Amino acid sequence: MKILVLNAGSSSQKTALFELGAEASVDPVPPLWEGKLDWDGSNEILTVKNSSGKKIHAENPTACGRQVSAEKLLRNLWSGPTAVLKDPAEVQAIGHRIVHGGPDLTQPTIVTPAVHQAIADVSSIAPLHNQAGLQGIDIATKLFPNVPQLAVFDTGFHRTLPLEAKVYAGPYAWYEQGIRRYGFHGINHEYCAHRAAQMLRRDVASLKIITCHLGNGCSLAAIDGGKSIDTTMGFTPLEGLMMGTRSGSIDPGILTHLLRTGVARAEDLDAILNRQSGLLGISGMSSDMRDILAAMQGGNHRAKLAYDLFIHRLCACVGAMAASLKGLDVLVFTAGIGENSPEVRQEVCERLRFLGIAVDQAKNPTSKPDTDLSGEGTVRVLVIGAQEDWAIAQTCARLLS
Questions:
Q1: Which CATH number describes the domain made up of 202-388?
Q2: Residue of 199, 306, 357, 373 with fewest CB within 10 Å of its CB?
């Protein structure tokens, strides 16, 4: 079964084609073909490669618009040097990562006009991501008109949050109006929990797991018996941990102070909190942890402060997740920073040693996903590669086969 996965971001379009046999592989398999399109509104970078090693890399200084560019990307599936299909009709299912499903869209679902409208209705909460997801659906409908499409929601895994974890302590009317903690990165949090259980040869139902999704966007999930019971992101992906350019949780009184004193208008706050804060805002030089670490080595005190803030907030939130779980069996590091920064893993595990967390000093510096880095503590420490696209493909195969 050939399954195409579209993972649309606010400034990128990632696509992967998987082929799943009659019996789905337990371990992730590499895609037959994958492509990525990045753009900033005027420039675009196209990267395409297939499993035979053929590649395309092109930079276009005059981008022709997101929809046209994304269509060009997908046409490389059956035309050009990286083609792996003779005809687009060979695709048998299409899965989409949709960031926000709101209160009603909590399970993977076939895309119908009603589902399309429901995704649009909650776009005000995550406007850039949901609109991008809808564009992906529209492009797929145009290029693959008779192929079933499935929407998989990043918020869906957190549907099991208990009331005390998802209701905000504002007026109860907020909750009735749909203002509540939704949580994000759910596709990868769920995948990592099951992958951890597989690596440890345990039933996921027997484990208390904290998954640390640390990339440009960062979130934690407390997973008890395979179910999300707490998470750090909230109504939007802005709450919780310090991130690449996002502030994470701050005193909301700061915002009313900025508004009241005229320092910022309401329309300025989104840019400040989402694009001018986090590692970039504190360091003044980069949102990339690799740059932060390099600048620290050169004596940059603001880079050091950005790193220390990131670690402080991360450790505090791991402690909070452990409290929600009332114990901890497994700590998972995943996504860009989690998979590639031994410094962050080492610092976090050292500070949380009192929870029984310890990392293997010999393995940690050179580890690759998927690796058990457990030291002499009682908690297992794992590095697991983020596999959102593979998880979506598996979901499509399970529900559409």
A1: 3.30.420.40
A2: 199
